[in-house]
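step=encode ok
step=design start
structure_in=
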C-alpha cells in the first residue's frame, strides 16, 4: 500500500466559525468581516483540503479580526477535496481534476463580489504556493523546514530565481522544524514546541498584509 499524504490533519477540534457562507454566482465561499467598515480585503486560497477545512476557516477569521474583509472561495467548485486518508501515489491523478491554475473564472467572480458587494478597494491574496518568479505583486513566502512538498534546495532555487527576475518586494522565511500547513493550526491543536513558530509566522503574515494591502 502506498504511503499516505504526509501532512496528517490528525484529530481536529470542532470550530465555531465567526463568518458565514455565501453563494457567488456558480461557487460558494466563506466570508468573515471585521466589526467596522473597511475597504481592504484578503482572499484566502485554500489548500488541497478545501474551503470547508476548519483550519483554513480559522485563518479567515483570524485575518478578519485584524481588520480585513476576508473570503475563502471554493476553488474546487463543489468537487471532493483531498483527504488525509488518501494516498500520495494517487495525488497526481487527483490534481488533474483540481488544477490550481485553472481558476481564472472563479477569481474574476470573487474579485467582482468584493468590489461590488463589499466596496473593497485594496485586495490581497494568501495562497498555498506560487510558481512564477516575475511576481506582479509583493509576496511573502512562508515555508516549514520539514515541509515534504518542497525541499530546501527548491527554496534556495526559488530565492535565486526571484533575485534574478522579481521586480517587486518579496520575502522568504523558513520556520524551523515545521511541516506543511503548520501556520493554519488552531490554538487547541498546536503542539507546545510548535506554538512559537506558528505564532511568529502569523505575526509575520499580518505585518506583511498591513504593509502592502
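sequence_out=
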Amino acid at each position: 500500500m502506498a504511503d499516505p499524504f504526509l501532512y496528517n490533519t490528525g484529530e481536529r477540534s470542532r470550530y465555531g466559525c465567526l463568518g458565514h457562507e455565501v453563494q457567488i454566482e456558480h461557487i460558494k465561499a466563506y466570508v468573515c468581516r471585521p466589526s467596522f467598515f473597511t475597504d481592504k480585503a484578503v482572499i484566502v486560497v485554500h489548500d488541497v483540503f478545501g474551503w470547508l477545512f476548519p483550519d483554513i476557516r480559522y485563518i479567515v477569521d483570524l485575518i478578519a479580526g485584524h481588520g480585513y474583509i476576508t473570503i475563502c472561495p471554493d476553488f474546487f467548485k463543489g468537487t471532493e477535496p483531498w483527504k488525509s486518508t488518501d494516498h500520495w501515489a494517487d495525488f497526481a491523478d487527483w490534481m488533474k481534476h483540481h488544477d490550481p491554475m485553472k481558476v481564472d473564472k472563479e477569481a474574476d467572480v470573487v474579485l467582482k463580489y468584493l468590489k461590488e458587494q463589499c466596496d473593497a478597494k485594496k485586495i490581497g491574496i494568501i495562497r498555498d504556493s506560487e510558481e512564477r518568479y516575475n511576481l506582479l505583486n509583493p509576496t511573502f513566502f512562508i515555508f516549514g523546514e520539514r515541509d515534504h512538498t518542497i525541499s530546501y534546495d527548491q527554496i534556495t532555487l526559488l530565492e535565486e530565481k526571484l533575485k534574478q527576475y522579481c521586480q517587486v518586494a518579496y520575502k522568504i522565511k523558513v520556520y524551523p522544524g515545521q511541516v506543511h500547513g503548520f501556520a493554519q493550526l488552531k490554538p487547541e491543536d498546536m503542539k507546545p514546541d510548535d506554538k512559537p513558530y506558528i505564532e511568529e509566522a502569523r505575526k509575520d503574515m499580518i505585518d506583511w498584509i498591513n504593509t502592502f494591502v
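step=design ok
step=annotate ok -> The first strand starts at residue 20 and ends at 24.
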